[in-house]
């Protein structure tokens, strides 16, 4: 049993029932909210381990909810939304969302995203024996044991996906990692829309670690192939 508490914020009854039934079948506990006000109240009252958040709620936009929760908590927030444009994803991620899942979605994909976030939580709460070490590249430093990243001594506020991407690239510094390899490592398998999602996450990650995102020093794009972390002196 996972025993994590998931807050499901979704006004569509059928989608909410699908998610909660899936969670229950896989050992997760859950609370539900059908609007933004209830979501904020539930989040503050129950302090869930993860929030699954729809953006199109009847009383407020989901991005506003993300900002409100981020004003007092770092609980992981996975957006589940029909909004599929890159700009919508970037706005939600910049507001503080940790992951973004586009409707319609498969149950397997939802569970994979939850597993990724759960592993991130485990690292934050104590780490794993094999990852109690650090990585330094130029002004970038990763503390695998603590689950933290720093640029020029200042901690970076990364989403779980951004952090896992940075760790993956750092452990293969100098090597080109293909889109397929990266998506399989990050999400457990390669979905057709994950390459587009990967571009979004790389864009937000670069904004946080590169002094000039349009002229990246740390992460190099190999068009049509994948990405590579460069060794910085």
TrEMBL record:
All residue ranges annotated as the OmpR/PhoB-type domain in the record: 132-231
Record-linked SUPFAM superfamilies: CheY-like (SSF52172)
Organism, scientific name: Faecalimonas umbilicata
Described purpose of this protein according to its UniProt entry: May play the central regulatory role in sporulation. It may be an element of the effector pathway responsible for the activation of sporulation genes in response to nutritional stress. Spo0A may act in concert with spo0H (a sigma factor) to control the expression of some genes that are critical to the sporulation process.
Record-annotated Response regulatory domain positions: 5-118
Regions annotated as coiled coil: none
Keyword terms, alphabetized: Cytoplasm, DNA-binding, Phosphoprotein, Transcription, Transcription regulation, Two-component regulatory system
Subcellular locations according to the entry: Cytoplasm
Protein origin, superkingdom: Bacteria
UniProt GO BP: positive regulation of DNA-templated transcription
List of residues that carry 4-aspartylphosphate: 54
Annotated DNA-binding residue span(s): 132-231
PROSITE patterns: OMPR_PHOB, RESPONSE_REGULATORY
Name of the protein: Stage 0 sporulation protein A homolog
Record's GO cellular component terms: cytosol; protein-DNA complex
CDD domains tied to this protein: REC_OmpR_KdpE-like (cd17620), trans_reg_C (cd00383)
Pfam family of the protein (one): Trans_reg_C
Primary location class: cytoplasm
Single GO molecular function: identical protein binding
